[in-house]
Amino acid sequence: MRVEQINISNILTKCFNGNFQIPDFQRGFVWSPAQIKQLAISFVKNYPMGLITAWEQPEIAHHVSGGKLEIGTAANPTKYGSYEQAPAVVNMVLDGRQRLTALAILFGGLRNSNNNMKFSGYWFFDLDKIQSDADDEEYVVYKKKYEYEQEQLDSLSNCIRRGLINISQLDLAGDYNGGIYNPENYPDGVVPDNKVCQRRIRSITLLQQRYAQFDIPVALLSSNLDLGAVCEIFDILNTTGTKVSTFDLIHNNLFMKSNGAYNLRESFNYLAELQSVGYLVSEKRQEFMCQIATGCFLSMPPDYVNAHTQGTGFAKTLKGKDLLITPLEFYNEIFVRDNGDFLEEICRDLFSNVIGKRVSINEIPYPVQVVLYLSIRWYIRYNINEGSRAQYIFRANSLFKAFFWRNTLNSRYDQGYLTKFSSDLRKLIKIIHDTEHYDGSRYCAEANEMLDSIAPLVGFDEIKRTVLDGEIGGAHKQLLKLSLMISVTRDIVDSENLGYDTNDAAYRVQIHHIFPKGWVRDNLGNVDVSSARESYGENNFANLIPMKAHTNREWRAMSPSTAIHKKILPGMHTRIFCKPLL
Q: Along the 582 residues of the chain, how does pLDDT read in single tens digits?
């Protein structure tokens, strides 16, 4: 194996020309917009992006077949590359497909051809934020296609006026710099203040330097290796190292500060055994426990926070560096002295009165929203007198329930959700205080109006499109799945209660198809079936329902029409299956 340092421009050229290809056995592109944004921030801050590992292929007979970087759906992909036939020199990317695709989206202009799907828009650097005290999440701005067109950001003049530069057009940075002081690029010919212009020029210069000098290490495995040897190498690489997580760093920090008296791992294991909190404690997301501690800490009065940070500064986000600010004293307060009892009480309330069902952290869209709720409840405990708490808790439950659904449906946390946390926490607490003396109807009206400024309502038509979208993923998919699980409480085949928590394989509840995928494929000669499949796809949520494993086997054995007549209609008058969805 040899390692080369290749800059972004040359890497994208190799991808575009087919020198770097994605082997057919690789999984598709799964990164979220938030992950792409973090890659852009790493570029600005000159942080390493990790190692790309590729496998050289013999010129005559390649070991494996491959193709272009792509995004979109399998049925309608958008590919990155100009070649029709592979060049003589080909390297198959074994590790780094997600990063390469993200680089192509950011710096290569790769966009989804379907304007209704993710990654169909444009990415910009905000030049006013890069050289300022702004949070790094503000460095990068994403514009949907209609926003891009409305704001006419295809014009260099309009970008200069807004202080934005298209990330895929950094090669135009020289023209951009030359136009910053040109009055023709501004309304009424008024050039911004010299400080603004100089800051933008410094930002442009920094980005130019980064783009020219930012090298990414690429490890090339020899073409002499066969597929079996390559698989063995990756097995060894993936089992001989242990990644150090944010949780590990915080654990060591607290252990050191307490002279060994406080063990975060022991607190984690204890909470994992609790009936309700345990649903939020996962080995795969250990740092979530630290986010809970930091969120609750940020809800405390300023005097308390000042007294316990000792000049280390306020945590502004729920990112790793800010999680380290939460002091040992507060970890003792929330996890040891309280013995987890209050957290258990809050989580019971969350599942029963807010979400409507006990679900694991992996089933909750944008889990940081749960930290918001726990933090609001922690605030009420320490800042509201005991006689008024019940009223505040009632308002917090109804307010957060509305926020949870609004916020998820409009995808507001797709980008920068960790940064938005502290601001949203303050705003939600303010709503509770500002409506303190209102009666029920006035409280609802005022709270809804205030919520509109944070997480606007999503219209019925947009929700309908989401439900019928056969390619839906991410938070929307989690939300609709959660809605089905809350709404459907009985099996449609035998009318028995659905036991979502069972470990019995035969009675395990999963989301199944009403019109099975196999039946749909077998009936594509039917015009209605073909049209519905083409318009919505068989995986749309209107075609899904929770069902036990063994009753699903009965259901799939018959055509949908036969199953409805034999299994549902005879007992319909005695059955109530579910509440209306959404």
A: 789 999 999 999 999 999 999 988 777 888 888 899 999 999 999 998 889 999 999 988 888 888 999 998 877 889 999 888 888 899 999 889 999 999 999 999 999 888 777 889 999 999 999 988 778 888 999 999 989 999 999 999 999 999 999 999 998 888 898 899 999 999 889 999 999 999 999 999 999 999 988 999 999 999 998 877 787 777 666 666 555 678 887 888 888 888 888 999 899 999 999 999 999 998 888 889 999 999 999 898 877 777 777 655 556 678 777 788 888 999 998 998 877 889 999 999 999 999 988 999 999 999 999 999 999 999 999 899 999 999 999 999 999 999 999 999 988 888 777 778 888 999 999 999 888 888 888 888 999 999 999 999 988 998 998 898 888 888 899 999 999 988 888 888 888 888 887 878 888 888 999 999 889 999 999 999 998 888 888 889 999 999 998 899 888 888 888 888 887 776 554 444 444 333
The three-state secondary structure class of 511 is: strand
Q: Residue 70 in contact with residue 235, Cβ under 8 Å?
A: no
How many CB atoms lie under 10 A from the CB of residue 176? 23
* CA dihedral for 550, 551, 552, 556, sign (positive or negative): positive
**Whether the Cβ atoms of residue 567 and residue 493 lie closer than 8 Å to each other:** yes
Q: Is 455 exposed, middle or buried (0-12, 13-18, 19+ CB in 10 A)?
A: buried
d(CA 227, CA 538): 36
**At residue 126, what are phi and psi to the nearest 5 degrees?**
-90, 110
Cα dihedral 431, 434, 438, 441 sign: negative
Position 459: which residue type? G
Reduced 3-state DSSP string for 307-348: HHHCCCCCCCCCCHHHHCCCCHHHHHHHHHHCCCHHHHHHHH
Spatial contact of 404 and 361, defined as CB atoms under 8 Å apart: no
The Cα 423–Cα 403 span in angstroms is: 14
What is the residue whose two structure tokens read 């002295």? 337
Cα(564)–Cα(554) distance, integer angstroms? 12
Residue with tokens 């394989």: 505
- Calpha distance 130→140 (Å, rounded): 9
Q: How far is CA 251 from CA 255, 271, 296, 315, in A?
A: 6, 15, 18, 18
Helix H, strand E, coil C: the string for 118-168 is CCCCEEEEEHHHHCCCCCHHHHEEEECHHHHHHCCCCCHHHHHHHCEEEHH
30 with 196: CB under 8 angstroms?
Answer: no
Rounded CA gap, 153 and 159, in Å? Answer: 6
* CA 68 – CA 83 distance, rounded (Å): 9
Helix extents (H) in 410-516 = 417-434, 440-452, 460-468, 474-487
